[in-house]
Amino acid sequence: MSDADVPRRVAMLSVHTSPLDQPGTGDAGGMNVYVVETARRLARRGTEVEIFTRATSSGLPTITELAPGVLVRHVVAGPFERLAKDDLPGQLCAVTAGMMRVEARRDPGWYDLVHSNYWISGQAGCFVANRWQVPLVHTMHTMAKVKNASIADGDAPEPAIRVTGEEQIVATADRLLANTEKEAAELVDLYDAPPDRVAVVPPGVDLDVFSPGGPEARRAARRRLGLPGTGRLLLFVGRIQPLKAPDVLIRAVGEILREDPDRRDELLVAVVGGPSGTGLDRPEELTSLTASLGLDEVVRFHPPARRSVLADWYRAADLVVVPSHNESFGLVALEAQACGTPVVAARVGGLVTAVSDGRTGVLVDGHDPVRWAGAIRDLLDDCPRRCAMQAAAVRHATAFGWDRTVDTLSEVYAEAMGQFTASPRFTGAGGVAGAGDRPRTASPVSFGALAVAP
């Protein structure tokens, strides 16, 4: 990798959710963590990062420094509050115009590369990368065609506009980043992505924050969280919505206690997170389910937690349960394992990579509460097996540090920049071809109701 292929500045797009938001509620989740952690580490290596996101309050500053070398730019587009994610495509023109105004006040060639995250950002990224004459690197995070193949009961399918938008991004981006080999194959098989433009860059975990501590650390974590020092703790961390399936854990616990009522005094379930997505339409549904199953004294609900507190939750738990219907990777599973806690997870998406089945946790087929009850009960009752998994989980997680992620990401950036400047689209010798000379895709890039020919 030559110095010429190392970007000086990257425009990172996270339009629909701000990296400053607390993960675990609203639209903030693993993607927010991904953007923050990669941006920080890129900046430490000498690449300045400017993150563009939509302003959701009139009180937000135009620019916020997230870390040395990392700026968050709040772009005004549409109403500040109460704008659903599904309504954002109608604001893509305003978002894109805001980014263009920022770049127009800079010297020519200010950004060396655009890295967009999620399809809404990718649509804007297609346009600005074309106009700025720089390569576009895109991370899907989740894909509509994959999500629609495994919809949870009561959830809504992803809209056709998203499917079309993702297809356009795949046809346009210089590089498409996948979290796992499985996701890379889905990009090729479901979206006809050219294999040579797909790169696997697994997300990571902050191994300084999420680390094991042994029995004493577990007891200390429980004291800080106000939890009983004894008993079995099952933990769910994440956004409360049908996709994440926290109801599967609640129903499974109901099955466990139905078969063995004596466990009620020793079993505690903690749900750490807030409503999101279609869960916002029925925010009381999970608490109502808990009450209907007679589990009010067993299940406790807690708001999203900052990272240091979240690490305490992981250390305090006997098992972390991740019953999602789909996960592009599953950072919660990885963070839990880094803290030495085994995971019971659904055999879907990236969780197959994040959890080593039978070694660091157990993968469960389907979402039948009876099957989940059996998997959870078997691990709780097998202390030697669970203890062996604790040690293996830590070893497994250490292979996924964020520095390793950014090592691979930097290589992808360099390849994208090197191939872009060597292509006929780029004139070299300090000049770039006109915007009209860069045919990225045969179809126009669609911004909601507006179509802009690249």
Helix content: 25-40%
Give the N-terminus to C-terminus distance in angstroms.
Answer: 30 Å
Radius of gyration from the alpha-carbon trace, in angstroms: 23 Å
Low-confidence stretches: 427-454
Strand order of the largest sheet: 3-4-2-1-5-6-7-8
Figure out the total of helices.
15
User: What structural category characterises the helix and strand content?
Assistant: alpha/beta
Give the biggest beta sheet: 8 strands, mixed
The chain-level mean pLDDT equals 89
Shape: globular
Tally of strands: 16
- Fraction of residues in β-strands: 15-25%
Features of the shown structure:
454 residues; alpha/beta; eight-stranded mixed β-sheet; six-stranded parallel β-sheet; 16 strands; disordered C terminus
What is the topological layout?
Blueprint: E1 9-13, H1 30-44, E2 48-54, E3 63-67, E4 70-75, H2 92-104, E5 113-117, H3 118-132, E6 136-139, H4 144-148, H5 160-172, E7 175-178, H6 181-191, E8 198-200, H7 214-225, E9 232-237, H8 246-259, E10 267-272, H9 285-292, E11 299-302, H10 307-316, E12 319-322, H11 331-338, E13 343-346, H12 351-354, E14 361-364, H13 369-381, H14 383-397, H15 402-422, E15 445-447, E16 450-452
Parallel strand pairs: 1-2, 1-5, 2-4, 5-6, 6-7, 7-8, 9-10, 9-12, 10-11, 12-13, 13-14
Antiparallel strand pairs: 3-4, 15-16
Helix pairs in contact: 1-15, 2-3, 3-5, 7-10, 8-13, 11-14
